Amino acid sequence: MDQRRKGILLIIGAALLWGTGGIGIKAVADSALKVTFYRSLFAAIALMLFLGRGVWGRRQWKSTAAFAIAIVSYGACLTTFVVATKWTTAANAIFLQYAGVVWVLLLSPMVVREPMRARDVTAIVVAMSGMALFFVGRFEARGMAGNAMALVSSVFFALLILVLRREQRAAQAAVTWGNVVCALAVLPFVANDLALTPRSFAVLAFLGVFQIAIAYFLFVRGLAYVTATQASLTGMLEPVSNPIWVFLFLGEKPSVYAIAGALVVLAAIAWHTMSGEPALDMPAPD
After folding, report:
1. Are 142 and 267 contacting, i.e. CB atoms less than 8 angstroms apart?
2. Residue 182 lies in a domain
3. Structural domain includes residue 61
4. Which strand (E) or helix (H) includes residue 173?
5. What would the pLDDT profile of 102-160 be if each residue is shown by its tens digit?
6. Alpha-carbon distance 98 to 132, whole Å?
7. Which residues contact 151 (CB under 8 A, 6 or more apart)?
8. 278 with 140: CB under 8 angstroms?
9. Is residue 251 in some structural domain?
10. How confident is the model over 224-238, as a mean pLDDT?
11. Domain membership of residue 23 as a residue range
Protein backbone atom coordinates (compact mmCIF):
# COMPACT_ATOMS: atom_id res chain seq x y z
CA MET A 1 0.00 0.00 0.00
CA ASP A 2 1.46 3.38 -0.99
CA GLN A 3 1.82 6.08 1.66
CA ARG A 4 -0.82 8.40 0.24
CA ARG A 5 -3.48 5.69 0.26
CA LYS A 6 -2.46 4.76 3.79
CA GLY A 7 -2.85 8.38 4.88
CA ILE A 8 -6.30 8.67 3.33
CA LEU A 9 -7.48 5.45 5.00
CA LEU A 10 -6.24 6.68 8.38
CA ILE A 11 -8.13 9.95 7.97
CA ILE A 12 -11.27 8.07 6.91
CA GLY A 13 -11.04 6.11 10.15
CA ALA A 14 -10.69 9.36 12.10
CA ALA A 15 -13.70 10.91 10.33
CA LEU A 16 -15.90 7.90 11.09
CA LEU A 17 -15.04 8.18 14.78
CA TRP A 18 -15.54 11.96 14.77
CA GLY A 19 -19.01 11.34 13.36
CA THR A 20 -20.14 9.87 16.69
CA GLY A 21 -19.63 13.24 18.40
CA GLY A 22 -22.97 14.85 17.61
CA ILE A 23 -25.09 11.97 18.86
CA GLY A 24 -22.83 11.50 21.91
CA ILE A 25 -22.90 15.16 22.97
CA LYS A 26 -26.67 15.36 22.54
CA ALA A 27 -27.09 12.09 24.51
CA VAL A 28 -26.04 13.65 27.82
CA ALA A 29 -27.72 16.45 29.74
CA ASP A 30 -24.47 17.84 31.15
CA SER A 31 -23.38 21.38 30.29
CA ALA A 32 -21.15 22.10 27.30
CA LEU A 33 -18.14 22.95 29.46
CA LYS A 34 -18.60 19.83 31.58
CA VAL A 35 -18.71 17.69 28.45
CA THR A 36 -15.59 19.45 27.17
CA PHE A 37 -13.74 18.88 30.45
CA TYR A 38 -14.43 15.17 30.75
CA ARG A 39 -14.00 14.47 27.05
CA SER A 40 -10.56 16.08 27.06
CA LEU A 41 -9.63 14.49 30.40
CA PHE A 42 -10.42 10.99 29.16
CA ALA A 43 -8.69 11.72 25.85
CA ALA A 44 -5.53 12.99 27.57
CA ILE A 45 -5.32 9.91 29.79
CA ALA A 46 -5.89 7.58 26.83
CA LEU A 47 -3.26 9.31 24.66
CA MET A 48 -0.66 9.33 27.42
CA LEU A 49 -1.16 5.63 28.04
CA PHE A 50 -1.35 4.75 24.36
CA LEU A 51 1.50 6.87 23.00
CA GLY A 52 3.84 6.56 25.95
CA ARG A 53 6.23 9.06 27.48
CA GLY A 54 8.55 8.77 24.52
CA VAL A 55 6.07 10.81 22.44
CA TRP A 56 4.55 13.35 24.83
CA GLY A 57 7.26 13.46 27.50
CA ARG A 58 10.12 15.02 25.60
CA ARG A 59 10.47 18.05 23.41
CA GLN A 60 10.39 17.16 19.72
CA TRP A 61 9.17 20.38 18.13
CA LYS A 62 11.36 22.95 16.46
CA SER A 63 9.06 25.95 16.74
CA THR A 64 7.72 26.73 20.20
CA ALA A 65 5.32 29.29 18.77
CA ALA A 66 3.83 26.80 16.30
CA PHE A 67 3.52 24.17 19.03
CA ALA A 68 1.68 26.66 21.26
CA ILE A 69 -0.64 27.62 18.39
CA ALA A 70 -1.43 23.93 17.83
CA ILE A 71 -2.33 23.41 21.49
CA VAL A 72 -4.49 26.54 21.68
CA SER A 73 -6.22 25.78 18.37
CA TYR A 74 -6.90 22.21 19.45
CA GLY A 75 -8.44 23.15 22.78
CA ALA A 76 -10.42 26.02 21.26
CA CYS A 77 -11.70 23.81 18.44
CA LEU A 78 -12.97 21.17 20.87
CA THR A 79 -14.57 23.68 23.23
CA THR A 80 -16.28 25.85 20.63
CA PHE A 81 -17.68 22.82 18.80
CA VAL A 82 -19.21 21.37 21.98
CA VAL A 83 -20.69 24.77 22.87
CA ALA A 84 -22.03 25.17 19.32
CA THR A 85 -23.61 21.70 19.42
CA LYS A 86 -25.32 22.57 22.71
CA TRP A 87 -26.46 26.00 21.54
CA THR A 88 -27.71 25.08 18.07
CA THR A 89 -28.65 21.94 16.17
CA ALA A 90 -26.03 19.27 15.53
CA ALA A 91 -26.62 19.75 11.79
CA ASN A 92 -25.88 23.48 11.96
CA ALA A 93 -22.80 22.93 14.12
CA ILE A 94 -21.27 20.25 11.89
CA PHE A 95 -21.99 22.04 8.61
CA LEU A 96 -20.67 25.41 9.76
CA GLN A 97 -17.57 23.91 11.38
CA TYR A 98 -16.64 22.39 8.04
CA ALA A 99 -16.36 25.85 6.58
CA GLY A 100 -12.87 25.25 7.94
CA VAL A 101 -12.16 23.31 4.75
CA VAL A 102 -12.40 26.62 2.87
CA TRP A 103 -9.95 28.29 5.29
CA VAL A 104 -7.51 25.41 4.81
CA LEU A 105 -7.73 25.80 1.05
CA LEU A 106 -7.08 29.55 1.21
CA LEU A 107 -4.28 29.43 3.79
CA SER A 108 -2.39 26.32 2.66
CA PRO A 109 -0.18 28.17 0.14
CA MET A 110 1.03 30.56 2.86
CA VAL A 111 1.25 28.27 5.89
CA VAL A 112 2.36 24.92 4.49
CA ARG A 113 3.40 25.94 0.97
CA GLU A 114 0.94 23.61 -0.71
CA PRO A 115 -0.34 25.30 -3.89
CA MET A 116 -4.04 25.89 -4.46
CA ARG A 117 -5.08 23.84 -7.49
CA ALA A 118 -8.22 24.06 -9.61
CA ARG A 119 -9.17 20.51 -8.64
CA ASP A 120 -8.98 21.47 -4.93
CA VAL A 121 -11.39 24.37 -5.45
CA THR A 122 -13.74 22.27 -7.58
CA ALA A 123 -13.84 19.37 -5.12
CA ILE A 124 -14.50 21.63 -2.13
CA VAL A 125 -17.26 23.59 -3.89
CA VAL A 126 -18.97 20.35 -4.93
CA ALA A 127 -18.56 18.82 -1.46
CA MET A 128 -19.95 21.90 0.30
CA SER A 129 -22.90 21.88 -2.11
CA GLY A 130 -23.49 18.25 -1.25
CA MET A 131 -23.38 19.07 2.45
CA ALA A 132 -25.96 21.83 1.94
CA LEU A 133 -28.22 19.29 0.22
CA PHE A 134 -27.41 16.78 2.94
CA PHE A 135 -28.87 19.09 5.59
CA VAL A 136 -32.00 20.24 3.75
CA GLY A 137 -34.81 20.58 6.27
CA ARG A 138 -32.44 20.33 9.22
CA PHE A 139 -31.17 23.89 9.35
CA GLU A 140 -32.88 26.16 11.85
CA ALA A 141 -32.73 29.90 12.27
CA ARG A 142 -32.69 29.57 16.06
CA GLY A 143 -29.46 29.38 17.93
CA MET A 144 -27.63 32.14 16.10
CA ALA A 145 -25.08 32.30 18.92
CA GLY A 146 -24.43 28.59 18.38
CA ASN A 147 -24.06 29.14 14.64
CA ALA A 148 -21.53 31.91 15.27
CA MET A 149 -19.66 29.63 17.68
CA ALA A 150 -19.56 26.91 15.00
CA LEU A 151 -17.98 29.37 12.56
CA VAL A 152 -15.38 30.27 15.19
CA SER A 153 -14.75 26.54 15.61
CA SER A 154 -14.17 26.26 11.85
CA VAL A 155 -11.32 28.80 12.08
CA PHE A 156 -9.61 26.91 14.89
CA PHE A 157 -10.20 23.61 13.05
CA ALA A 158 -8.41 25.00 9.99
CA LEU A 159 -5.54 26.38 12.06
CA LEU A 160 -5.15 23.04 13.80
CA ILE A 161 -4.90 21.12 10.52
CA LEU A 162 -2.41 23.56 9.05
CA VAL A 163 -0.14 23.67 12.11
CA LEU A 164 -0.21 19.89 12.59
CA ARG A 165 0.69 19.47 8.92
CA ARG A 166 3.55 21.96 9.31
CA GLU A 167 4.87 20.59 12.63
CA GLN A 168 4.50 16.87 11.92
CA ARG A 169 7.18 15.71 14.38
CA ALA A 170 5.34 17.39 17.24
CA ALA A 171 1.77 16.64 16.12
CA GLN A 172 1.07 13.74 18.50
CA ALA A 173 2.55 15.62 21.45
CA ALA A 174 0.50 18.70 20.52
CA VAL A 175 -2.74 16.71 20.49
CA THR A 176 -1.91 15.07 23.83
CA TRP A 177 -0.99 18.29 25.60
CA GLY A 178 -3.84 20.08 23.86
CA ASN A 179 -6.28 17.85 25.72
CA VAL A 180 -4.45 18.44 29.01
CA VAL A 181 -4.51 22.22 28.57
CA CYS A 182 -8.15 22.17 27.46
CA ALA A 183 -9.23 20.18 30.53
CA LEU A 184 -7.25 22.41 32.90
CA ALA A 185 -8.63 25.59 31.28
CA VAL A 186 -12.22 24.43 31.67
CA LEU A 187 -11.84 22.91 35.16
CA PRO A 188 -12.38 26.17 37.15
CA PHE A 189 -15.76 26.63 35.46
CA VAL A 190 -17.04 23.12 36.31
CA ALA A 191 -15.21 22.41 39.60
CA ASN A 192 -18.44 22.69 41.59
CA ASP A 193 -20.30 20.25 39.35
CA LEU A 194 -18.10 17.26 38.59
CA ALA A 195 -20.61 14.51 39.46
CA LEU A 196 -21.55 12.14 36.63
CA THR A 197 -24.34 9.64 36.22
CA PRO A 198 -23.29 6.17 35.04
CA ARG A 199 -24.77 7.02 31.63
CA SER A 200 -22.85 10.28 31.35
CA PHE A 201 -19.63 8.59 32.47
CA ALA A 202 -19.97 5.90 29.81
CA VAL A 203 -20.83 8.34 27.02
CA LEU A 204 -18.10 10.84 27.91
CA ALA A 205 -15.50 8.10 28.34
CA PHE A 206 -16.40 6.79 24.88
CA LEU A 207 -16.17 10.28 23.39
CA GLY A 208 -12.82 10.93 25.05
CA VAL A 209 -11.17 7.62 24.19
CA PHE A 210 -12.63 6.85 20.75
CA GLN A 211 -14.13 10.03 19.29
CA ILE A 212 -11.17 12.18 20.36
CA ALA A 213 -8.03 10.24 21.34
CA ILE A 214 -8.05 7.42 18.79
CA ALA A 215 -9.58 9.60 16.08
CA TYR A 216 -6.93 12.30 16.40
CA PHE A 217 -4.17 9.70 16.61
CA LEU A 218 -5.35 8.33 13.25
CA PHE A 219 -5.75 11.82 11.81
CA VAL A 220 -2.26 12.95 12.81
CA ARG A 221 -0.72 9.79 11.36
CA GLY A 222 -2.63 10.23 8.12
CA LEU A 223 -1.79 13.93 7.86
CA ALA A 224 1.87 13.05 7.41
CA TYR A 225 1.09 11.47 4.02
CA VAL A 226 -1.46 13.81 2.41
CA THR A 227 -1.87 17.52 1.81
CA ALA A 228 -3.79 19.68 4.26
CA THR A 229 -6.55 20.21 1.69
CA GLN A 230 -6.88 16.47 1.04
CA ALA A 231 -7.02 15.81 4.77
CA SER A 232 -9.70 18.41 5.46
CA LEU A 233 -11.75 17.30 2.45
CA THR A 234 -11.57 13.63 3.45
CA GLY A 235 -12.56 14.69 6.95
CA MET A 236 -15.92 15.73 5.51
CA LEU A 237 -16.85 12.07 5.81
CA GLU A 238 -17.62 12.99 9.43
CA PRO A 239 -21.01 14.61 8.69
CA VAL A 240 -21.75 11.89 6.15
CA SER A 241 -21.19 9.22 8.79
CA ASN A 242 -23.27 11.00 11.44
CA PRO A 243 -26.70 9.83 10.15
CA ILE A 244 -25.29 6.31 9.82
CA TRP A 245 -24.56 6.28 13.55
CA VAL A 246 -27.99 7.82 14.23
CA PHE A 247 -29.64 5.09 12.16
CA LEU A 248 -27.67 2.31 13.83
CA PHE A 249 -28.27 3.51 17.41
CA LEU A 250 -31.59 5.38 17.18
CA GLY A 251 -33.22 3.77 14.14
CA GLU A 252 -33.77 7.15 12.45
CA LYS A 253 -33.72 6.74 8.68
CA PRO A 254 -31.94 9.44 6.64
CA SER A 255 -34.03 11.51 4.22
CA VAL A 256 -33.77 11.31 0.45
CA TYR A 257 -31.96 14.68 0.50
CA ALA A 258 -29.47 13.35 3.05
CA ILE A 259 -28.73 10.30 0.92
CA ALA A 260 -28.33 12.43 -2.22
CA GLY A 261 -26.09 14.94 -0.42
CA ALA A 262 -23.96 12.17 1.03
CA LEU A 263 -23.45 10.71 -2.44
CA VAL A 264 -22.36 14.12 -3.76
CA VAL A 265 -19.84 14.55 -0.92
CA LEU A 266 -18.51 11.03 -1.44
CA ALA A 267 -18.20 11.63 -5.18
CA ALA A 268 -16.26 14.86 -4.61
CA ILE A 269 -13.86 13.17 -2.17
CA ALA A 270 -13.41 10.16 -4.46
CA TRP A 271 -12.75 12.34 -7.52
CA HIS A 272 -10.26 14.53 -5.68
CA THR A 273 -8.51 11.50 -4.19
CA MET A 274 -8.17 9.64 -7.49
CA SER A 275 -6.95 12.73 -9.36
CA GLY A 276 -4.65 13.83 -6.55
CA GLU A 277 -0.92 13.70 -6.12
CA PRO A 278 1.18 12.43 -3.21
CA ALA A 279 1.93 14.95 -0.49
CA LEU A 280 5.40 16.36 -0.74
CA ASP A 281 7.74 16.68 2.22
CA MET A 282 7.34 19.99 3.98
CA PRO A 283 10.10 22.46 3.21
CA ALA A 284 11.94 23.95 6.16
CA PRO A 285 10.31 27.19 7.34
CA ASP A 286 12.12 30.42 6.68
Report:
1. no
2. yes
3. yes
4. helix 171-190
5. 888 888 888 888 888 888 888 888 888 887 776 666 656 666 788 888 889 989 989 99
6. 11
7. 96, 97, 99
8. no
9. yes
10. 87
11. 3-274
